[in-house]
Amino acid sequence: MVGAASSAAVDRTSADNDRLALVRALSSVAGGSEAALRDVYSRTSAKLYGICLRILSDRQEAEDALQDIFLTIWKRAGSYDAARASPVTWLATIARNRSIDRLRARGSRPFVNLDAAADVPDARADAVAGIEAAQDRDRLMNCLDTLEARQAGAIRASFFQGLTYSELAEAGAVPLGTMKSWVRRGLLRLKACLSE
Amino acid sequence: MTKRDDDDEDELFAAELALRLLDGEALLAARARQSADPAFAAHVSVWQERLAGFFDEVEPVEPGDGLWERVASAIERYNPSETVVVLTRRVGLWRGAAAAMTALAASLALFIGLRDPTTIKETQIVSRTRTVPIPTPVPVPTPTITPAPVPEPTPPVSRDLRVAALTPDDAPTMAVVSYDEAGRSLIFTPATLTPVAGHSHQLWVVPASGNPRSLGLVTPGAARRIAIVDNLATLFRGEATVAISAERTGGSRSGLPEGPIVAKGTLRPV
Questions:
Q1: pLDDT tens-digit profile of B160-180?
Q2: What's phi and psi for A184, nearest 5 deg?
């Protein structure tokens, strides 16, 4: 499978180049370059908007969030540390956090079914985002599969809906302490699996 | 507890912060630790990377046309021509850069200089020594202030003045508070804090140990001076944190934060 191996190597190089270009663009944004922000926008806005939409389920609000997120990136690009986080993770984490802030500011929570959250189909077979990303995703999904369904469901609901322990306990109709120990055991298991 | 248990506990606490499982005091404690403890902050980053696989299952969606123009004009509005923004930027700089002191002193020199040329020299001297006392930190120097004649030679007055920029996660400064120990007063200056329908914003002091205490409600766009009575003043000793929570209209009924913390910062000497 020489062909597949070299094609993977090409994808890998291309992912590295994208990452490097994004790190450079963020560094220029920190220096006050609006053109560099435009570059970051064209490279990442669809991904970040997808995250906002997934969390907020409302196009208008997701667009408001996205505007807010790029303003945040403009102001905080100087605090990005390439040694500590990949640029995409840093940007996506801002998008997630700002979207969850908006969700919390709404003050109302949609009904959450933790079992359904555990059953969300994952996109393992649908690799679209480059080899490296696909590998990260597969590792996380494979490791989540080693957890109990309720643990994986709670972790997923917290990630995409920002549910706190208290909200998870309420949604799962279990005592707070029980929910905490489920999730904590799940997180330790997840860490061990991802470190293998 | 063994060392290994402690490590696990730190890792889990970091994971809980990264996932946003925490609320109330646990959330405040985790955020305070994230800003004060680089090892803990690194754990949080590692968990963010571990969980980033979730982002890969999100399909990209093109935002509507014209969104970039909205971003561009938001940046235009943000860029530092407004006094409030200048103040916010200054506070950011105060934390790390002596240069900010010089800039502040220089702007003060300019301000005073415009009013009274004879005071320029003194102001320039203090600006070089970087020990100029911070002027009362209201957002805009009121034009009615006339510089008091300074008896010579006057060492700068030493006052315990501490400032905190209140910020949410990954976001710009929402408000600035400064606490004047001698004057027993706290000045609250909102920056990007915006109203949330059906909610009131409540200000809290979170002492190094013990429960948060309410400092009352605050309003976006309105600076406030809050008198700190004796029994509250003790809570400001050491590394006190000031936080804003979003509460139901009228504020928390229990005396403790009930809604989410929207911004917080630790008071530090300037």
A1: 788 888 988 766 788 889 888
A2: -65, -40
CA–CA dist A115, A170 (Å, integer): 14
Q: Looking up tokens 């933790």, which residue turns up?
A: A114
Residues of chain B contacting residue A96, judged by C-beta atoms under 8 Å apart: 55
Handedness of CA B165, B190, B173, A105 (dihedral sign): positive
| Residues 6+ positions from B30 with CB-CB distance below 8 Å | B13, B14, B16, B17, B22
Q: Chain B 60-119, CB below 8 Å of chain A: which residues?
A: 60-64, 67-68, 70-72, 74-75, 78
What would the 3-class secondary structure string for chain A be?
Answer: CHHHHHHHHHHHHHHHHHHHHHHHHHHHHHCCCHHHHHHHHHHHHHHHHHHHHHHHCCHHHHHHHHHHHHHHHHHHHHHCCCCCCCHHHHHHHHHHHHHHHHHHHHCCCCCCCHHHHHCCCCCCCCCCCCHHHHHHHHHHHHHHHCCCHHHHHHHHHHHHHCCCHHHHHHHHCCCHHHHHHHHHHHHHHHHHHHHC
> Hey, which residues 5-34 in chain A have their CB within 8 Å of chain B?
34
Query: Is B20 an 8 Å CB contact of chain A?
Result: yes
Question: How many whole angstroms separate alpha carbon A171 and alpha carbon A158?
Answer: 11
Q: Which domains does chain A have, with CATH numbers?
A: 14-108 (1.10.1740.10), 127-195 (1.10.10.10)
CA distance B225 to B229: 13
0.80 cut: is pTM over it? no
Gap between the Cα atoms of A48 and B58, Å rounded: 9
Chain segment B33-54, per-residue pLDDT in tens: 888 888 999 999 999 999 999 9
With beta carbons under 8 A apart, name residues in chain A contacting B49: 85-86, 89
